[in-house]
């Protein structure tokens, strides 16, 4: 198992809450996929879950080495919860192209949050793009 990149991020949950409060749907649609919005809004502490996904997306972009690549959209990276409860990463668009170009086949991610902070760590692993690049578009 060859590690091609690592990334980490921490964000204040109230900061994400303020962004949602100030910009509402515009912010949510720009940063999160419909699936992520539905998931977070279904949780008791939705802001903490939104913040966790924000931190995960930042960590993943760092692990991809793509944090400053033009054309990347926040929604090119999606965090899903697997049947086992573990977070899974899906990429599409420019993020998928970067992953393929750099030989990244999977990204492991770990998230954690409390009322104040959310943090995430990501590890990009070498290999052929498997489930990493199988994100289908959200339903219309």
TrEMBL record:
Alphabetized Gene3D superfamilies for the sequence: 4'-phosphopantetheinyl transferase domain
Main location, first listed in the record: cytoplasm
Keywords annotated in UniProt: Cytoplasm, Fatty acid biosynthesis, Fatty acid metabolism, Lipid biosynthesis, Lipid metabolism, Magnesium, Metal-binding, Transferase
Location relative to the cell: Cytoplasm
Stretches assigned to the 4'-phosphopantetheinyl transferase domain: 5-105
Binding site for Mg(2+): 9, 58
Function of the molecule: Transfers the 4'-phosphopantetheine moiety from coenzyme A to a Ser of acyl-carrier-protein.
Similarity field: Belongs to the P-Pant transferase superfamily. AcpS family.
Protein name: Holo-[acyl-carrier-protein] synthase
Species for this entry: Aquisphaera giovannonii
Gene for this chain: acpS
């Amino acid at each position: 198992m060859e590690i091609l990149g690592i990334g980490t991020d921490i964000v204040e949950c109230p900061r994400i809450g303020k962004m949602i409060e100030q910009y509402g749907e515009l912010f949510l649609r720009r940063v999160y996929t419909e699936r992520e919005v539905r998931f977070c809004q279904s949780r008791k502490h939705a802001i903490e879950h939104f913040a966790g996904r924000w931190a995960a997306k930042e960590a993943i972009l760092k692990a991809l080495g793509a944090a400053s690549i033009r054309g990347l959209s926040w929604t090119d990276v999606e965090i899903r919860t697997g049947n086992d409860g573990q977070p899974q990463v899906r990429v599409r668009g420019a993020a998928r192209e970067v992953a393929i170009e750099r030989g990244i086949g999977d990204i492991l991610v770990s998230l954690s949050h409390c009322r104040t902070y959310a943090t995430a760590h990501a590890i990009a692993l070498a290999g052929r793009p498997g489930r990493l690049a199988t994100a289908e578009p959200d339903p219309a």
